[in-house]
Amino acid sequence: MELTGAEILIQSFANHHVDTIFGYPGACVISILDSLYDNKDIRQILVRHEQGAVHAACGYAQLADKPGIVLVTSGPGATNTITGIADAYSSGIPLIIITGQVSSNLLGTDAFQESDMVSITAPITKWNCQIRKVDEISDTIDRAFNIATSDCPGPVLLDITKDAQTNFAQYISKSALISNNYSFANNQQPLYAQSQNPLYEKVLHALTESKKEIVLVIDKQPNDFYSEEYFCRNKVLKSDILGVAGFGLPAAIGATFAVSRKTICLVAGVLEFQATIKELGIIKQERLDIKIILLNNSTNNRFQIKNPDFTQIAGAYGIVAEKVDINSDLHSSIHKMLNTKESCILEIGNSI
Fold first, then answer.
1. Residue range(s) defining the domain that contains residue 306
2. Whole-angstrom Cα distance, residue 279 to residue 59?
3. Which residues, 6 or more positions from 178, have their beta carbon under 8 angstroms from its beta carbon?
4. What is the domain count for the chain?
5. What is the C-alpha to C-alpha distance for residues 84 and 69, in angstroms, rounded to an integer?
6. Is 116 exposed, middle or buried (0-12, 13-18, 19+ CB in 10 A)?
7. Is residue 243 a contact partner of residue 87, using CB atoms and an 8 Å limit?
8. Is the overall model pTM greater than 0.85, yes or no?
9. Do residues 241 and 306 share a domain?
10. Of 246, 196, 185, 265, the residue nearest 226 (C-alpha)
11. In what order do the strands lie in the sheet with 20-23?
12. Strand order through the sheet with 263-269
């Protein structure tokens, strides 16, 4: 059976039991998006920025126990993934990142939106490869999944030229040969650090006493938010070694596509939250249920940054929001938030 390279790519994903792809469209992946549109078993989550796609795939991978998949176009679309890839590499999270590339006859000519992603990502991937021929796609995908999930897991990047996506090749389905026996989630026994901040302790107490099964996503610098006493029975996701500000919101979004019947709770500083705040659009579009606690302690704002009215921003995205005083009954406010049936934002500040 002859298929285009884009069709072979999507079929290869299906053979590896891929059900979710995070990405952003562009000209150099348009044929892949066309093939993905025709596939009813793989959902595409449209992020607002390519960095968010990688962080979301990281959150997904750690809970789904399978590699997170990212699909972005060439040039700036591809280079926007670098921070997320570096974070996944330092944290040992398996990802398959597909970047579009200009046609092979244009490589090395400084063509519009051509970037040498193989050279750029060499230090921050377990393996990367540029695919220039359609008949290389199937075997390369199989190898990518094997490398990303074996030994020390990590991200793999495949840069696929436009002509490799649109040309035809014979394809034989390998669905009977591909297994899904991955076991690499690195957060089954999370490491813990002590926190000396009274506000942090109040928030943790309230979350713990809720008795809910919580996936806690942390986006706060310094990243020493939770203590050994808390969350021993729950999942904790954070940008650990690299400490990326803005990891939290997209990672929490990715987590919602990996698990059900668990409460996804993001605790973020307001500066970190604003780094990827645009991804609130996914919550609105996909009608996700994520509980967001914003820590707005302006006395610790050493840069004297003027913050927006987060309740108004939340309202613009159709998200319920409330602001409470740092000295109020945080237990009641947090318990109320956790028991809502939709996404909501609880901002904890110095004054109402």
1. 198-349
2. 14
3. 15, 16, 17, 142
4. 2
5. 12
6. middle
7. no
8. yes
9. yes
10. 196
11. 43-46, 20-23, 68-72, 95-101, 155-161, 127-131
12. 235-238, 214-219, 263-269, 290-296, 344-349, 320-325
CATH at residue 40 = 3.40.50.970
Q: Which amino acid is at 32?
A: I
Q: What is the pLDDT along the chain (352 residues), one digit of tens a residue?
A: 899 999 999 999 999 999 999 999 999 999 999 999 989 999 999 999 999 999 999 999 999 989 999 999 999 999 999 999 999 999 999 999 999 999 999 999 999 999 999 999 999 999 999 999 999 999 999 999 999 999 899 999 999 999 999 999 999 877 555 555 555 555 444 434 445 677 888 888 899 888 888 999 999 866 556 555 555 445 789 998 899 999 999 999 999 999 988 999 999 999 999 999 999 999 999 999 999 999 987 655 566 788 999 999 999 999 999 999 988 899 999 999 999 999 999 999 875 4
| Pair (165, 236) in one structural domain | no
**Which residue in this structure is represented by tokens 């409470």?**
324
Give Cα 144 distance to the centre of its chain.
19
